[in-house]
Design goal:
The complex is a heterodimer of chains A (263) and B (259). Chain A is of the alpha/beta class. Chain A contains seven helices and nine strands, in the order E-E-E-H-E-E-H-H-H-E-H-E-H-E-E-H. The chains are: A alpha/beta (263), B mainly alpha (259). At the A-B interface, strand 5 and helix 2 of A face helix 7 and helix 8 of B. The complex binds adenosine-5'-diphosphate and magnesium ion. The site of magnesium ion has 5 residues of chain A, from helix 1.
Chain lengths: 263, 259
């Protein structure tokens, strides 16, 4: 679709607390341009908070985030999210939801229609353009979520557990589609998950966070391109095992922790 | 061995087509029957046929048109004024911290006050003409509108607003494209309450210093103990309420097709 995104992010000594609850501590990390960075870590370790800080939705308590690199002229919203709960507007049909960011950017009606048609085709939603969100399955709703994000041709795609509200089969199917779409668009991607198989299939840089307060525990790089990775590949399984070894104890501890509602 | 008994039924009432209209017709028919058979003294309670005759007289004399025109225009203006003000205040309370707590205190203090009791005060303030009548209606409609609008705005999922922000929507765009449509179901549900309130207050307001209007008509019929005409007036009010409620139903089906 487009050339590789040349936009990278630098996270410099970012920390964050909610009142007395320290959730992120001293995160320094670079997000390389045109690659997929996966954030894994036990639930409650601050992954969503970090993603919120990266996209400018949460003001960091400490530190800062820098964006570097030329933003393509056709990019309408450099930092663009795909949400865990889809966050579709129920009163807009599929095409209307996909057009939301384009309208905000003031694109003409014709240009909007062209882009909407393009991303609907890309995500297999063409026949559903006039459907209401309530008429769609979870998997189709998240396809709308990704179509809405791709429509603005983002420089950085921020995906917060985009599959965790879906059943296992839908998840497997959608993961393949995401992988293809991300590889084709070459967009810099940050993908949050706590599913290790997703991390191994999508990640080029996998950042393992410790339990709360989240700190960087380890960074694992996978140089293989996304295309051609298959679930069950021995080297990917080996990476999953490594991730699990890193996370296991933290995950067990995190599960026993008192927490306020949220996630 | 024992067969497993089904115990999961009930608690799922379904609408029965035409049962509502049929029920009303049956009651009226039974009423007429009881009156014709002499079980109910018509001096005690006029028979439906007598009420219909009174209605026909009203229509033929052209009186109905005058009363209805006066009432409908008061209803429309009074309701619109109260609704508009209520929407503005409701949105302000829902959106701005500075408006919220003080505004909510005022609304909570004034909402339970029976507006009918304030009619004489409004007459003193706004004169005995149309002004006091519109203010009575508007005042009564205003508070439930504020409460419903506020509930609607508060009910808009926070994540949708964050989504809007994340796609670079302006504040105005978030208001128009997310908050307003998100609050609409609650606002329309409020219309059912406020239109009924408006009809009740209309009659109260028309009982002071009005020559025309269903309320004035009902009052004068009552003073003359013309119970046929009195109930004819009441019937018109009931039909008016039914018609408005039907209209709101259509509006909801049109605007909330996405639900
Ligand atoms: N707005 C908030 N106010 C208070 N606490 C919050 C808020 N958002 C998240 N938290 C808490 O901060 C911690 C980290 O949350 P989050 O970043 O969502 O973690 P993750 O996405 O890794 O599960 C959790 O314990 C959560 O309950
Ligand atoms: Mg999370």
């Amino acid at each position: 679709m487009t050339v590789k995104s040349a936009v990278s992010l630098s996270i410099e000594a970012v920390g964050h607390s909610y009142r007395d609850l320290r959730v992120l501590d001293d995160i320094t990390l670079s997000i390389p341009a045109g690659q997929v960075t996966v954030l894994v870590g036990p639930s409650g370790c601050g992954k969503s908070t970090l993603l919120g800080i990266l996209g400018g939705l949460i003001a960091p308590g400490q530190g800062r985030v820098l964006m570097d690199g030329p933003i393509a002229s056709d990019c309408l919203n450099p930092l663009t999210y795909v949400f865990q709960d889809f966050a579709l507007l129920p009163w807009r049909d599929v095409a209307g939801n996909v057009a939301l960011g384009l309208q905000a950017a003031g694109l003409s009606r014709d240009a909007r229609a062209a882009r909407v048609a393009e991303v609907l085709a890309l995500t297999g939603l063409t026949d559903f353009a006039t459907a209401w969100p309530k008429q769609l399955s979870g998997g189709m709703r998240q396809r709308v979520g990704i179509a809405r994000a791709l429509a603005v041709r983002p420089a950085v795609l921020l995906m917060d557990e985009p599959l965790s509200a879906l059943d296992a089969q839908t998840r497997a199917l959608l993961l393949e589609e995401f992988s293809t779409l991300i590889a084709a668009s070459g967009v810099t991607t940050i993908y949050v998950t706590h599913t290790l198989s997703e991390a191994a299939l999508l990640g080029q840089q996998i950042v393992v966070l410790s339990r709360r307060p989240g700190r960087i525990r380890d960074i694992i790089r996978i140089d293989r391109p996304l295309i051609g990775r298959r679930p069950g590949d021995p080297d990917l399984m080996a990476i999953e095992s490594r991730l699990w070894a890193l996370i296991r104890d933290d995950a067990a501890d995190a599960a026993r922790e008192f927490t306020d509602a949220g996630g | 061995m024992q067969e497993v008994k089904f115990r999961g039924g009930g608690f799922a009432p379904r609408p029965i087509p035409f049962a509502g209209a049929l029920t009303l017709l049956l009651i009226v028919a039974a009423w007429q029957g009881a009156a014709s058979l002499g079980w109910i003294s018509t001096r005690f309670l006029p028979a439906p046929l007598a009420i219909i005759r009174a209605l026909v007289t009203l229509v033929q004399s052209g009186e109905l048109r005058l009363h209805l025109a006066a009432s409908l225009s008061r209803l429309a203006y009074g309701w619109a004024i109260g609704t508009l003000a209520g929407l503005i205040v409701g949105f302000a309370l829902g959106l701005f911290s500075l408006a919220r707590t003080p505004g909510l205190a005022i609304v909570s203090a004034l909402f339970p006050v029976p507006k009918i009791a304030l009619v004489p005060l409004f007459v003193v303030w706004f004169g005995i003409g149309e002004g006091s009548k519109l203010v009575t209606l508007g005042f009564g409609v205003f508070f439930p509108t504020v409460i419903n609008t506020l509930a609607g705005v508060d009910g808009v999922p926070r994540n949708l607003i964050r989504m809007g922000q994340s796609f670079g929507l302006s504040r105005a765009a978030i208001l128009a494209k997310i908050v307003l449509p998100g609050a609409l179901p609650a606002i329309l549900a409020g219309f059912r309450i406020t239109t009924a309130t408006a009809i009740i207050l209309l009659v109260a307001a028309e009982m002071i210093g009005a020559d025309y209007g269903i309320g004035a008509f009902v009052l004068s019929a009552g003073n003359l103990y013309d119970t046929d005409a009195l109930l004819a007036g009441i019937t018109i009010l009931s039909l008016l309420g039914l018609a408005i409620s039907w209209l709101i139903g259509r509006l909801e089906r049109w605007l909330l097709a996405w639900r």
